[in-house]
User: Fold this.
Amino acid sequence: MRVLAIDTALAACSAAVFDGEHDTILASETLPMTRGHAEAVMPLIARVMEQAATDFTALDRIAVTVGPGSFTGLRVGIAAARGIALAAAKPAIGLSTLATLAAPLISEDHGSQVVAAIDARHSHVYLQVFGTGGRSLVGPRIATLRDAVRAATADGARIVGSAAEKLAAGWPREAGQPLSVEQREAPDIDWVARLGAAAEGYGPPKPLYLRAPDARPQSAAQLPRR
Assistant:
């Protein structure tokens, strides 16, 4: 299984090629950024594919993060993945940013709870809570910071994501301190690739927004139809 992974959903533009047969990342590159993903993604993918000495037709699938995250950013990654998949006649699959953030921690310790939290702004977070063996205890959702802390609070929890420090700051004293707090602005692209190789039963990638966009058309400014 050879997988091209793409992530543009949050504060990075990343790509990696994973060789599942030899359990090896052949090439990987991450550019931290909050804007400019559309201009950066295709040259970055070209560099990674060249470093991996892999042709697009030699891939088995393309994996891409589908959100939650930046509305514009995640659409850029999905469009790139769909275009490559169409041109190379290979399947493309979508992976949640919350699952890919949690994956390294779940791999390290299957027995403790992992809380993946992404800053959604305006005192809200995107949240998912994973239990033993990576089982989803609280599904992907958007919540106020207070509700997120209530849903995530557990003895021995580990928190990861761009809202990790915010959740830790609101952690109630009676619950004890989280085992770890890892502030990450974007998933590790190598883990996106590994999850892409292991994924089963995933359909074509489509955006996972979890909320309506901030920018909306102003109906009052629209001209009446005739």
Remarks:
- Strands lie at 2-7, 12-19, 24-32, 61-65, 92-95, 114-121, 124-130, 136-144, 158-161, 180-183.
- The mean pLDDT is 91.
